[in-house]
């Protein structure tokens, strides 16, 4: 399981720090696929049948639909991330610290204090913290949506880690969290697409007006 969580964190780092937005969105696909693998593995090891359904839905929505929505938005804008509030080298260094050191210490805390929760807890909390960091440090709208997505994945993992002890309630919370997250991300991507289209129309009108003035 540890290698699966390390793979999730690695592709999370790529999604958060790569300047090229297409590569950043592409990194979300293996990020989510490893989340699906982790959910199925947890279901198998702990014999929790409801997680198989959750993993299947995660595969459809997180690994397929959300990247498709984001790629649709990228059609109407440049592919390079807007300049973040933190320089790229410093941001990469901070990201490595948050993801690697954070996960390490949360894993130690979970092992010593939270024996009752599943193995997804340290990874989930690390994703949540890292997503918040990205949200504060990024100015690009696509990167901000990616940050929300990483935060939601972290919450998803945290809830899954509690399933054996609050089974019915947690399953209801998972379903509710999933529906709200999907609707929220669809709304964000649609609105983002509208904003980009309006920006392109504005630029087109400005360039046309400028050409007209030059001709006169």
Compact summary:
The protein has helices at about 1-15, 20-45, 50-75, 90-115, 120-135, 140-160, 165-215. It has about 220 residues and is mostly helical.
Main sheet: strands, sense, barrel:
none
Distance between the termini: 69 Å
Count structural domains: 1
Helix content range: over 70%
Unreliable spans are none
The ordered H/E elements are: HHHHHHH
Number of strands: 0
Q: Which secondary-structure class do the elements indicate?
A: mainly alpha
Shape: globular
Beta content: under 5%
Q: For the residues shown, what is the average pLDDT? A: 78
* Quaternary form: single chain
- Rounded to an integer in angstroms, the radius of gyration calculated over CA atoms is 20 Å
Output the number of helix runs: 7
Transmembrane segments: 25-44, 51-71, 86-106, 118-136, 142-160, 172-190
Subcellular location: Cell membrane
Main location: membrane
InterPro entries: HyfE-like
Characterize the structure shown.
By secondary structure, the chain is mostly helical. The protein has 7 helices and no strands. Helix 6 runs antiparallel to helix 7. The longest helix is centred in the last third of the chain and has 49 residues. 32% of the residues are buried. The mean pLDDT is 78.
Keywords:
216 residues, mainly alpha, 7 helices, 0% strand
SSE topology:
Layout: H1 2-17, H2 21-46, H3 50-74, H4 88-113, H5 120-137, H6 141-161, H7 167-215
Helix pairs in contact: 1-2, 1-4, 1-5, 2-3, 2-6, 3-7, 4-5, 5-6, 6-7
């Amino acid at each position: 399981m540890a290698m699966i969580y390390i793979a999730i964190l690695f592709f999370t780092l790529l999604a958060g720090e790569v300047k090229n937005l297409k590569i950043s969105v592409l990194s979300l696909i293996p990020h989510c696929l490893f989340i699906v693998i982790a959910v199925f593995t947890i279901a198998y090891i702990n014999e929790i049948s409801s997680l198989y359904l959750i993993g299947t839905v995660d595969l459809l929505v997180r690994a397929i639909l959300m990247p498709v929505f984001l790629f649709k938005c990228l059609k109407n804008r440049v592919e390079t991330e807007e300049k973040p509030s933190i320089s790229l080298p410093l941001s990469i260094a901070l990201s490595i610290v948050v993801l690697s050191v954070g996960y390490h210490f949360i894993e130690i805390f979970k092992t010593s204090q939270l024996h009752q929760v599943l193995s997804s807890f340290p990874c989930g909390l690390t994703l949540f913290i890292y997503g918040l960091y990205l949200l504060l440090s990024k100015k690009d709208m696509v990167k901000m949506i990616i940050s929300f997505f990483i935060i939601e994945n972290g919450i998803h993992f945290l809830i899954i880690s509690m399933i054996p002890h609050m089974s019915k309630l947690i399953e209801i919370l998972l379903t509710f969290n999933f529906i709200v997250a999907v609707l929220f991300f669809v709304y964000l991507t649609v609105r983002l697409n509208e904003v980009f289209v309006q920006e392109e129309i504005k630029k087109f009108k400005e360039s046309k007006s400028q050409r007209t003035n030059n001709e006169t």
